Amino acid sequence: MAAFTAILRKDLRLELRSGQSTIALVALALLVLVVLVFALDPAVARGPETAAGALWVALVFSGMLGATRVLTAESENGCIRGLLLSPADRAGLYAAKLAAAFIFMMVAEAAGVVMMVLFFNLEFDAAMMRVAPVLALGALGFASLATLLAAITSRARASDLMLPLLAVPMYVPALIAGVRASAAALSGAPFSAARDWIGILIAFDVLFVTAGYLLFEHVIAEE
Amino acid sequence: MARKIVTSLGVLSLILVIAALYMVFEYVPTEADEGIVQRIFYFHVPCAWIAFMAFGLVAVAGIFYLWLGGQIWDDLGHGAAETGMLFCTLMLISGSLWARPMWGTWWTWDSRLTSTFILWLLYGGYLMLRVMIDDSRQVARFAAVIGIVAALDVPVIILSVRLWRTIHPAVLVTRQGGHGLEDPRMVATLLVSLAAITVTFAWLFLVRFAELRMGTRLEALARGIALAEVRTGDI
After folding, report:
1. Residue B234: per-residue pLDDT
2. Total beta-carbon pairs less than 8 A apart between chain A and chain B
3. Distance to chain B for A219, nearest Cα, Å
4. Under an 8 A CB cutoff, do A152 and B145 touch?
5. Cα angle at B129 between B127 and B130, to 5 degrees?
6. How high is the ipTM of this complex?
7. pLDDT digit string (tens) for A128-159?
8. Is the separation of the CB atoms in A26 and A107 below 8 Å?
9. What is the mean pLDDT for each group of 10 consecutive residues in chain B (235 residues)?
10. B3 lies in a domain?
11. What is the pLDDT of residue A10?
12. Do A207 and B156 touch (CB under 8 A)?
């Protein structure tokens, strides 16, 4: 637990002073939304359904970047070796990296929601409050999955290519559930319309946080 | 001994495939609603079963690798993933060929099609990762972890995709085979086809597995020689 707070505090302090990761993530989420506005026919695609879809595409892209940034920051100057030599357990390291990636993603998502409202002509109303927990669940799932996978793909050739190739198919259930639940939240449907989807999101999060927590020591160890 | 098993499996697979082909084209009656195309079913369904079984095997091999260690588990998972990928691809192709005359489209986002396709993407990524990492010990650990995580993901994928399709209006009413086998000859043909595909899978898998084992042994030998050379001062 001490290792968890120490590593997370270090990551957050680094981020507060440089701002590199969050700025990159926010910029990427913004760009994805702009691309989608151009890609979709404005006459047809202006509504909660498309807005939710666009937001989740932005979430996947920013999550990919976030998880990679959080882990490569350690290996760039060999800090990861020091962390592995320290008595801090691997699971604590995983939890800290997951938490950092999650926080960065949520910052990007907050910016993404504001942009989505402006670009897709929605209103700033109670729907925003309803969509926030759905996004948080989605970001947690993606961060847990991508942190585990990024530790693997960072050791591969063409690592920028390998992370999306592995992470996106695995993330499909949460993506489907998240888009449907967000669309329901944005269109003001009652909670019962989204209950099953939120259940799938929670199941996905529990599954991948647990799997990552248990399996991280096998992927981070150096031979 | 091992070679004999592989050879006899190969011969058995040949016999069974010929028998299955005879039954599919000559013996089994044509299904009333779908006509001649329905015969793809006897190839398609066994491929699906085998693909799922092979991917299960990948996860089990991964668990044993992380638990007990030993390159043999990694070779097992590697072989199962490659062979399973082959049958998963065959299932998608045969399903597409069946869908075109029956549903009027090569592809539809039906729940089973979608789940299978995502599974195919998942294990495609798994196999690509194996190529992209050079260190063989690292490959084994990473592949084990991904094999386990992917297998955990499969039920969630199937559940979410099914829910996704039921909420959307179904574009096509799918007639899932397997429930409507009224004729006992159909059941017999399915069973023989299943046996043929299973034995073919086992044969291909063992050939690949034996090859991977040999590769592992060669690598160990090469390491031993290099070590001996260092010790005797040849280098």
Report:
1. 61
2. 91
3. 6
4. yes
5. 65
6. 0.86
7. 888 889 999 999 999 999 999 988 888 888 88
8. yes
9. 86 92 85 78 89 94 92 93 94 87 82 87 93 86 93 89 68 48 81 92 93 90 88 70
10. no
11. 87
12. yes
* Complete DSSP assignment for chain A: -HHHHHHHHHHHHHHHHH-HHHHHHHHHHHHHHHHHHHHS-TTT--SHHHHHHHHHHHHHHHHHHHHHHHHHHHHHTTHHHHHHHSS--HHHHHHHHHHHHHHHHHHHHHHHHHHHHHHTT--SSHHHHHHHHHHHHHHHHHHHHHHHHHHHHTTSTTHHHHHHHHHHHHHHHHHHHHHHHHHHHHTT--GGGTHHHHHHHHHHHHHHHHHHHHHHHHHH---
Which pLDDT does position B172 carry in this prediction? 43
pLDDT at B180: 57
Question: Which of A165, A213, A223 is the best substitution to test chain B (most B C-beta atoms within 10 A)?
Answer: A165
The domain of B167 spans 9-26+35-232
Distances (CA, A) of A167 to A97, A210, B186: 17, 16, 41
**Minimal C-alpha gap between B50 and chain A (Å):** 21
Establish if B161 belongs to a structural domain: yes
Q: Which tokens hold the place of A152? A: 């693997």
For residue A220, pLDDT beyond 70: yes
Of A108 and A84, the structure prediction assigns the larger pLDDT to A108
Judging contacts by C-beta atoms under 8 Å, the chain A residues touching residue B67 are none
Number of domains in chain A: 1
Is the predicted pLDDT of residue A44 greater than 80, yes or no?
A: no
Q: Do A165 and B124 touch (CB under 8 A)?
A: yes
- Determine, for residues B160 and A176 on separate chains, whether the beta-carbon distance falls below 8 Å: yes
B1 in a domain, yes or no? no
Q: Which chain A residues are Cβ-neighbours of B145 within 8 angstroms?
A: 148, 152, 215, 218-219
Residue B121, chain A, CB below 8 Å: the answer is: yes
Residue B126 with chain A: CB contacts under 8 Å: 166
User: Which pair of structure tokens corresponds to residue B209?
Assistant: 């597995």
> Which residues does chain A have within 8 Å of residue B144's beta carbon, measured at their own beta carbons?
218
Could you give the number of structural domains in chain B?
Answer: 1
Instruction: Judge whether B169 lies within some domain.
Output: yes
